[in-house]
């Protein structure tokens, strides 16, 4: 078998992670320029086939490191001789329509799906470091990749409550959580749900940075801060476009927050994200930004705090006993009979023990009593206590229930939960 035929096969199937480095070096050793192109295609394709969300290429002291972010965790894939760094970086820039010779400034670009053998669009970011440029590639998808509410992994009561919230004609639904906690995926699932509920009668407009999935029958706007086209500017413009549903990618400042909250009061349904550790913390964050309590109380109909947890690999999961320290931390959770299991590591999960991810969440629905409480400018702790009295299930409880059923582990749960849980 020739090297070219071997490479052709590698581009259409998932290789074991341990085999990728050898294939890369074989491609780079080719005497012509096709070797670098084949190597980059192999890196991108294998990342897609393994389900990586991001691909990292970073120069270390004497090697170029290739890592995939699999199920939220960076996994070392290959160590490449530094002599290939410039050629590999240049090839990625060509694919992403970036300026090849500029290595002293950050650049952002996009690789269209037709430019790779895996047919996946990708977002490229390069930044200069003391050892040369670091490149991070985010693998995107299209509308066919969008999850439904049922497939996100939330407990049924959260799914049904979200469905009830988005069926309302007005209001504001806010999602919170750290980066890479699945907020964008949940929002797209909610938009798909709204499109299914209301057929073609709804005018849905999104403001994103960047647009990660393309949706049919949705007007998607990408902000461009370089020309002062910000979230606030775009939101102000689309309010003149007769929208019924508005999705704002992120609330970052007072002006965007004020317009989004007011829009939820004036005949629109608004979905957005805001950074906070917990669902209760969203309200104090809005108040601290300067939003009047009566606006928050009247407009916000629900807040969803979420995290992504890795799932036990079904091929190698075995019963195990968590450490006494972990059991002690969760001793006050629901008194269910636990069935703790943990992945031992196998070929199916690349010896990691986990395969796939699911969402856990705490959904805070704003009742009349809660709205009156917000008018008094309560602390985060007071809001949290009020929410618990109203029946809110916490992130920790939701996650523990999944661990007790053998879906994940307590170790994974501690990794993703807020420090104060």
Distance between the termini: 56 Å
What is the beta-strand fraction?
Answer: 15-25%
Shape: globular
Low-confidence region ranges:
none
Outline the secondary-structure elements:
Layout: H1 3-10, H2 17-28, H3 34-49, E1 54-59, E2 63-70, E3 73-81, H4 85-95, E4 107-111, E5 122-129, E6 132-139, H5 156-166, E7 171-176, H6 183-198, E8 204-208, E9 219-222, H7 231-238, E10 245-248, H8 254-263, E11 269-273, H9 279-288, H10 293-299, E12 300-312, E13 317-319, H11 324-329, E14 341-343, E15 354-365, H12 368-374, H13 380-389, H14 395-404, H15 410-416
Parallel strand pairs: 7-11, 7-12, 8-9, 8-10, 10-11
Antiparallel strand pairs: 1-2, 1-6, 2-3, 4-5, 5-6, 12-15, 13-14
Question: Could you explain the architecture of this structure?
Answer:
The chain is built from 15 helices and 15 strands. The protein has 421 residues and is α/β, with parallel strands linked by helices. Helix 8 (254-263) links the parallel strand 10 (245-248) and strand 11. Helix 3 packs across helix 4 (85-95). The longest helix is centred in the N-terminal third of the chain and has 16 residues, at 34-49. It is globular and about 70 Å long.
Quick overview of this protein structure:
By secondary structure, this protein is of the alpha/beta class.
């Amino acid at each position: 078998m020739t090297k070219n035929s071997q490479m052709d096969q590698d581009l259409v199937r998932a290789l074991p992670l341990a085999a990728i480095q050898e294939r890369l070096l074989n491609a780079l050793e080719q005497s012509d320029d096709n070797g670098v192109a084949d190597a980059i295609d192999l890196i991108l394709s294998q990342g897609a086939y393994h389900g990586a969300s991001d691909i990292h290429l970073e120069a270390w002291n004497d090697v170029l490191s290739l890592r995939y972010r699999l199920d939220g965790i960076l996994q070392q894939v290959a160590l490449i001789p530094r002599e290939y760094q410039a050629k590999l970086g240049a090839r990625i820039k060509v694919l992403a329509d970036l300026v090849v010779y500029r290595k002293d400034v950050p650049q952002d670009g996009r690789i269209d799906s037709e430019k790779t053998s895996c047919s996946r669009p990708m977002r490229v970011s390069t930044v200069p470091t003391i050892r040369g440029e670091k490149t991070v590639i985010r693998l995107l998808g299209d509308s066919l990749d969008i999850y439904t509410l049922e497939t996100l992994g939330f407990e049924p009561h959260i799914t049904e409550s979200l469905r009830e919230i988005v069926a309302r004609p007005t209001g504001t639904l806010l999602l919170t959580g750290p980066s890479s906690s699945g907020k964008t995926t949940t929002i797209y699932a909610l938009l798909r749900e709204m499109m299914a509920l209301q057929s073609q009668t709804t005018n849905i407009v999104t403001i994103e940075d960047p647009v990660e999935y393309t949706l049919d029958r949705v007007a998607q706007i990408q902000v461009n801060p370089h020309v002062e086209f910000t979230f606030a500017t775009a939101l102000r413009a689309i309010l003149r476009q007769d929208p019924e549903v508005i999705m704002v990618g992120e609330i970052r400042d007072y002006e965007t927050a004020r317009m989004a909250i007011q829009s939820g009061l004036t005949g629109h349904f608004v979905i957005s994200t805001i950074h906070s550790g917990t669902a209760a913390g969203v309200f104090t964050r809005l108040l601290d930004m300067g939003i009047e309590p009566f606006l928050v109380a009247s407009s916000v109909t629900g807040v969803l705090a979420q995290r992504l947890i890795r799932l036990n690999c079904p091929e190698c999961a075995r019963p195990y006993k968590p450490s006494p320290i972990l059991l002690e931390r969760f001793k006050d959770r629901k008194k269910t009979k636990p069935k703790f299991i943990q992945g031992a590591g196998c070929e199916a999960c690349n010896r990691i023990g986990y395969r796939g991810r699911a969402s856990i969440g705490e959904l805070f629905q704003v009742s009349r009593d809660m709205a009156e409480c917000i008018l008094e400018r309560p602390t985060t702790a007071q809001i949290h206590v009020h929410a618990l009295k109203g029946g809110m299930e916490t992130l920790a409880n939701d996650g523990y229930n999944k661990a007790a059923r053998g879906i994940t582990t307590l170790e994974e749960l501690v990794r993703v939960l807020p420090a104060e849980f």
